């Protein structure tokens, strides 16, 4: 979907939190700047020339987006830091005023931040277009072009998937032994769990991620979501067995549904469900360009650690993980329990 970086703070921050994009951008955009304290910084005068805007325009954005720009590296230099900056510029920034007692400078990250905000600058519009291209290039390169299964690059995915499969067997056994009905009840109660956690049934989820009808949803879920589903399955299996034994018979599907709805209201699950919804909605929009409309209120910018988790050196394809003897040994120990 088309991204309007001037409007969406989440989309802006997702770019700025992705250090792999920042590395490529700094290398290829060649914006200039001055070297100070091991990073590239820019003065207001330099940004006026770069974006072809006035001093007043920069000040307006500094006022309207102060917290965002400061969190991304805009700072005011005073005292010893300002003196050091003036000395390091070797007289090349004389138009900033040699007698000034304070000076605002932008980190490279803050320069990009401002460029994603400016609506009245053609150079900024071109920069936004280039940035979005760099994002696509980085994602394709680091994720192998398969963002649909980017969840599997997480080192925690394989263990979560393996454990969830074990709990799922307990859950389906409980449905067999303690709930009336035919084989359709498995899909029905699975959908009820999905709806409890992320407000979508299987068909809706597949549509959002553009999966085929026969695709296995769980192969696309993040480890935190798989762990929460496993908790639901384990807990519900226990409650079904207990209720069935108390009644001395199998439960009707209506009784089982009421039990599940009561189970999902337990205070224990509230923070876990909030976390799962936030991670699913935010990561899928960022990494897969997939919008879960029923979870739109939970969208946040993706933290820097997640980019390392799914795109960094420790992230590996599922094939690479399965070829690792240590990983296989862990799975074998779990299987033999």
In spatial order, strands of the major sheet run 1-2-4-3
Q: How far is it from the N-terminal to the C-terminal residue, by CA?
A: 46 Å
Oligomer: single chain
Rg over CA atoms, rounded to whole Å, is 26 Å
Helix content: 55-70%
Assess the beta-strand content as a share of residues. 5-15%
Number of strands: 4
Order of helices and strands: HHEEHHHEHEHHHHHHHHHHH
Largest β-sheet summary = 4 strands, antiparallel
Shape: elongated
Unreliable sequence segments: none
User: So how many helices?
Assistant: 17
Fold and architecture overview:
- The protein has 337 residues and is mainly alpha-helical.
- The protein has two domains: 9-142, no CATH class; 147-335, no CATH class.
- Helices cover 62% and strands 5% of the residues.
- It has 17 helices and four strands.
- It has helices at residues 9-16, 19-29, 44-51, 55-64, 66-71, 79-88, 108-117, 122-142, 157-178, 184-198, 202-209, 223-247, 253-264, 270-287, 304-311, 318-322, 325-335; strands spanning 34-36, 39-43, 75-78, 102-107.
- Strands 1-2-4-3 form a four-stranded antiparallel sheet.
- A hairpin with a 2-residue loop joins β1 and β2.
- α7 packs across α8, α10 (184-198) packs parallel to α13 (253-264) and α12 (223-247) crosses α13.
- The radius of gyration is 26 Å and the shape is elongated.
- The two termini are 46 Å apart.
Task: Give a brief rundown of this model.
This protein is mainly alpha-helical. The chain has helices at 9-16, 19-29, 44-51, 55-64, 66-71, 79-88, 108-117, 122-142, 157-178, 184-198, 202-209, 223-247, 253-264, 270-287, 304-311, 318-322, 325-335; strands spanning 34-36, 39-43, 75-78, 102-107. The protein is built from 17 helices and 4 strands.
């Amino acid at each position: 979907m088309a991204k309007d970086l001037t409007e969406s703070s989440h989309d802006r921050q997702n770019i700025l939190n992705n250090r792999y994009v920042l590395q490529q951008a700094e290398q290829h955009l060649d914006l200039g700047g001055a070297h100070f304290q091991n990073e590239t910084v820019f003065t207001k005068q330099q940004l006026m020339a770069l974006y072809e805007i006035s001093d007043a325009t920069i000040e307006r954005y500094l006022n309207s987006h102060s917290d965002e720009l400061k969190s991304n590296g805009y700072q005011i230099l005073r005292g010893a830091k300002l003196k050091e900056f003036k000395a390091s510029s070797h007289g090349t920034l004389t138009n900033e005023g040699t007698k000034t007692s304070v000076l605002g400078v932008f980190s490279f990250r803050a320069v990009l931040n401002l460029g994603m905000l400016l609506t009245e600058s053609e150079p900024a519009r071109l920069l936004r277009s280039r940035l979005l291209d760099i994002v696509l290039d980085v994602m394709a390169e680091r994720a192998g072009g398969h963002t649909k299964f980017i969840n599997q690059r997480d080192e925690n995915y394989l263990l979560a998937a393996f454990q969830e499969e074990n709990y799922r067997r307990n859950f389906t056994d409980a449905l067999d032994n303690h709930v009336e009905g035919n084989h359709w009840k498995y899909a029905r109660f699975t959908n009820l769990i999905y709806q409890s956690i992320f407000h979508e049934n299987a068909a809706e989820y597949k549509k959002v991620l553009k999966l085929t009808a026969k695709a296995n949803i769980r192969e696309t879920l993040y480890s935190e979501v798989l762990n929460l589903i496993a908790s639901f399955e384990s807990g519900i299996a226990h409650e079904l067995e207990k209720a069935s034994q108390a009644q001395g018979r199998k439960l009707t599907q209506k009784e089982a549904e009421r039990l599940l709805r009561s189970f999902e209201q337990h205070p224990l699950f509230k923070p876990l469900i909030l976390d799962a919804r936030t991670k699913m909605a935010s990561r899928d929009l960022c990494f897969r360009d997939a919008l879960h409309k029923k979870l739109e209120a939970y969208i946040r910018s993706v933290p820097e650690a997640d980019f390392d988790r799914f795109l960094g050196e420790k992230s590996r394809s599922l094939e690479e993980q399965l070829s690792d003897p240590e990983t296989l040994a862990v799975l074998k120990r779990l299987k033999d329990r």
